[in-house]
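Shape matters. As here.
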Amino acid sequence: MDLNITVGDMIRWGLSQMRKANVDYLDFGNPDLSLTACYLTFFALNLPYDYKNPIYLNGKLHKDEVSAVKDIFNKRIKERLPTPYITNECWFGPLSPQPKFYINEDVFVPRSPFVHYLKDFMQEITWTNHKVLDLCTGSGVMGIILALINPNIQVELADICPKALKVAQININNHNLEKRVKCIQSNLFNSIKNKYDFIITVPPQLSVKEYKNIPVESFHEPELSLRSGKDGLKHIQHIIDEGPDYLNPEGMLAAEIGPRLPDVIKSRYSHLKLKWLKFKNEEWIFSLKK
């Protein structure tokens, strides 16, 4: 039975329901959730992601299609699942068109502001052996994007979690990068043997107190990827202390550590020449040259 309900109607309904429920958009789409509403509706209906096309927007829906769209929005609203966990897909990075990645609940949802600086970092590197390490890689998106930017590099994706590395391997395969990108299971640098021209990392960085106050959506993410000891410094301290030992003589380490930790790091490592980059007028990212 066809209903007098269109694709556009379901988008408006889904947007209204998400706003009422005050869902956290987790940097996917935009803060007013309109792009998320379009995406989830088109995903549920197996339509091309052509959100402005009147042929799709004005299409009348069967009752089964309406139910499918409602089921998708219920996962986002009632279960508070982040959007990429519902669809198992995510577009991310500075390239155009953005590469598509596979995402599930074994990995952190990609959203680091690091992506705005990846191309710049690649131009700053002094290349000797063309090896790159993506530490605490999760889904592997950062290292894979670097491999897509520069076809001459070899990338290693390191993570302590075997389940996360399975996701990373899927993304390697999906981008046909098996010859240049590989996974290593490692607790930070414990299983790392090489030296690199570039080490990039978005480590766990939340304190116990911060973790208790994250959006409901983020509790679906692996705690292992978010928490870093009592004060949030456990991982980044190890990385700063040990990282230079794994760099080539002209190598660079770069890390994104969020808005709270920079002041602590600046004080604790005042003897190091850390270069800071801003995101939303705050210094979230630093680089360190050997």
Notes: The chain has a mean pLDDT of 94.
